[in-house]
Amino acid sequence: MKAFVHLFFALAILAVAYASDQCPKVNGEYVEHLANPVDCRTFFKCETGVPILQE
Fold this sequence. Notes:
Oligomer: single chain
Number of strands: 3
Largest sheet: 3 strands, antiparallel
Strand order of the largest sheet: 1-2-3
Number of domains: 1
């Protein structure tokens, strides 16, 4: 049972981490911004599933 709980939380953490690094295919009500893992002075603005580099 303990292993099941650990597996559940590990999968939940992976799902959140994976989902937060992708642009949604459809634009929502608000613009989605993603951090640039290489340069902290820039970010990506999502436009219909395509990340566009912004400063």
